[in-house]
Fold this protein.
Amino acid sequence: MVRLITHNLLACHVKGCTSNNFPLALKDVQIELQEAEFNPEFVTNILPRLEWSALADAARQVGDTSLPAEQPEMMDDDLLRNLHHVLLEIHIVEGAMVCPNCKHIYPISNGIPNMLLAEHEIG
Amino acid sequence: MIPTPDLSHLTEQDKLHVYDPAEDTFLFLDALEQDAEDLKGEKPLICLEIGSGSGCVSAFIGSILGSTNTLYLCTDINNRASDCTHRTGRHNKIPLDPITCDLARPLLKRLQRSVDIILFNPPYVPTESEEVLSAQLGRGISGSWAGGTNGMEVTNRFLETVEALLSERGKFYLVTLDGNDVPEIRERMFRAFRLQCQIVAQRRAGIENLHILQFSRVNR
Ligand SMILES: C[S@@+](CC[C@H](N)C(=O)[O-])C[C@H]1O[C@@H](n2cnc3c(N)ncnc32)[C@H](O)[C@@H]1O
Ligand SMILES: [Zn+2]
């Protein structure tokens, strides 16, 4: 399943597409919610490796508005729980991710993102 | 003793198209088990396996590190392998996040110096170069072993990017055999990227002499 934590780490890698190639836009996505055990330490520690605005935006695209557009200075327990849900419990099952720059479409099928490129698209 | 992941959900059809764990896989598990305390002590946040196949290795390290402490990203060029990895994760209660792609390509931009553990049991068997080309394009079972010249054509492409991915205290584990020329790999990785290498496990399997190499940054 493409969880939003994974989506936050994927960029377009078509030959020559090196700027504005992240975050990939979500298109026609079907989501599934699956409960995961809450680990506040993990959620807190992983944050510096993620991009907040891309995450908040992806969450909004799938109908979750629990994260503020800007990363707050202080994390309280409620916010950590919202983050946990957005990062780890929302699964994209079907749909596609589209590069904001070159418009390349990466399909997601049966929960698996297909990021393979054809020979001529490889840098 | 950490139990070997339960793979009983994999079907005969899966095994026709996806690498079935073998001696190399099991040597890899033994090496990770030996390092278990050190690996846990580093509190890794992101673990990335290249060529996860059945998902056996990532599910195993997941049972060492815990299901909620670390993100387990798994790539494979074979879409059916991604599906097996996914199911192996679910079956063993370790969330594994599969991505069908070449090596770590779509992750390179966002994971610069961010990956704490990198695992790769590559297609390492020496073959003709044409064979590795068609195996890589075919994205099926032959892609799990065909390695081209010295068995290193796929691995070498990954070695060019591994240092950029490794976090400050990150570790990279690689499966090799004698034919891959281990001394040359070690020397090159040190010269080009200042990564030091230890051989953490070694075993003879038939005519193959397998090793597990562990790379890390110098001067930590
Ligand atoms: C020797 S098998 C190892 C499978 C599993 N990790 C294990 O240890 O049992 C090598 C795996 O690498 C995958 N592979 C080959 N070329 C690849 C590439 N360019 N990018 C990602 N995966 C690749 C194959 O599909 C296969 O699943
Ligand atoms: Zn693009």
User: Anything to note?
Assistant: The domain at 2-121 of chain A is CATH 2.20.25.10 (N-terminal domain of TfIIb). The beta strands of chain A are 2-3, 25-33, 90-98, 105-109, 112-113. The mean pLDDT of chain A is 95.
